[in-house]
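User: Hi! Is it possible to get a structure for several chains at once, not just one? Here's what I have:
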Amino acid sequence: MLSEFDLIARHFAPIAGEAGLGLLDDAALLRPPVGHDLVITTDALAADVHFFADDPPATIGHKALAVNLSDLAAKGADPLGFVLALMLPAQKSGMRLDDDWLAAFAGGLGALAKSAACPLIGGDTVSTGGPLGLSITAFGSVPAGRMVRRSGAKPGDRLFVTGTIGDAAIGLQLRLAEKQDKALQLSADHGHFLHERYLRPRPRNAIAAILRGHAHAAMDISDGFAGDLAKMLRLANVGADVLLDNIPHSVAARAAFRHDPEFRETALTGGDDYEVLAAVPEAKAKAFATACLKAGLAVTQVGTVLSEQAPIRFLEADGKPR
Amino acid sequence: MLSEFDLIARHFAPIAGEAGLGLLDDAALLRPPVGHDLVITTDALAADVHFFADDPPATIGHKALAVNLSDLAAKGADPLGFVLALMLPAQKSGMRLDDDWLAAFAGGLGALAKSAACPLIGGDTVSTGGPLGLSITAFGSVPAGRMVRRSGAKPGDRLFVTGTIGDAAIGLQLRLAEKQDKALQLSADHGHFLHERYLRPRPRNAIAAILRGHAHAAMDISDGFAGDLAKMLRLANVGADVLLDNIPHSVAARAAFRHDPEFRETALTGGDDYEVLAAVPEAKAKAFATACLKAGLAVTQVGTVLSEQAPIRFLEADGKPR
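Assistant: Yes, the chains can be modeled jointly so their relative placement is included. Here is the combined structure:
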């Protein structure tokens, strides 16, 4: 095993930004743009809870940063940088985190950091007797007072989601079924797409500025669409009608639904979407959708926020609640 | 086990600052004072590596924050707040992290956060199949461009340390000896003092402003005095003479030296001091010491920085290198 110093110099200094001071000091330095607030988010991941220990290391590095970038996007914040705490299993643990593993991990992490303009600026590497653990704290900036809250939804707001919902949760089920030699009868392309959506979430950072200009509230969907929607609405003490037919699902997910109708439930309640849920006032809904389209972001209107104390209803095509 | 939501509401929301938004949003918000840089430090701790799983939970909470506050102090930064990533062992792991444990942990963490004016502003709680893991990222502010680097030592600078050196490393040895029923013949008071120094480091945050006004370089001593001094000097490509007799040791540590001379070595090379090492230009050395005295901080001059390429020498009273 490399020393902490060599490990940092070899694998992490190359992906560090200027503020990381070459990762040689005890601390990083960040100067948020004048007139801006700093937005801070933390997401921790443990092997065999949030990813499989035998996942490709590049995807583990990618995912650890992606889930944090997704939070910044949903808050309307533009990425500035991140710090990484890495808990590496001691040799005896059986998980082989050798030099090749670290190089691939840092490669996946660094590629996303570069494409998102969110450099590594500091962190810590420690040894643990347990499985691999990762914690990333990411920093973004918003013009002062403009962070998009989770709590601001108002009656009449239109509810939008980016991308497609449920792919990653189905991808995880496929992965688990594979491990039990119970592979499902999906085409290889569909299976690959769904699994990739689980392994390599794509944070929607292009939506940040659009949310600031249009949304009353937003959050990223990480714990399942239905549950995360409920969290947002409860904070504002409002209800909503959601049209089930309007919820965007990928072609691959729809193929999975045909194979096993239970996957419809998985898609709405499973986690790991890393799409953005936004509540946009009716008057700005069209402009919001147009701005997203221009930015190359797929968004779909899925429902409407109702008055205080109303329930959250998921409506079938015939208008009946499921 | 409480849900993540209940766990946060019961134990962590009460110690959160305003910027934590009640810990109900996806992100925290920080507005560093105008004209200031943000200093960011991350330290991770794993059970049975950085602390014992059966340590009092209040001291685990205290230590996790203290080691980060110590980094801020050494950088000349005044604390603003911190985020916590908590990796809680799943039930099966045998480590009982019940409601009482969490209450005591949050109590220890919150007490130090309050006394240091460094509130909890966000974080994440996840489950792990391994031992307890903690990662704290702490934020501080310095007037723009005034962060005290690790790398700025210059020939002629006087080397100072705060407090006393080696107590925690000896305290750890005592604790390990106890576990093996090989208790050393130290008085109960001395044993307790040394063990407390290991369990409950006291970050020297009062030194931050003084360092900004006087020091060329500073770092906190966490991996052992000798090794950390070498890190600072190598970065500046300079050497130093350190007078062994001048290194401050507590009465309890000196009693341990008498019991077993090996502890002299432990004191200089062991970790967990969380004192501050500073390189101060000769012209400011007296003013630095006076300012520390006024702030109630014990500091001791232990050596002098030598020219480039010179070695680091630890000198006995007779002037001979050890």
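Chain A touches chain B through 59 residues (CB under 8 Å). The two ends of chain A are 55 Å apart (CA to CA).

User: Great, thank you!
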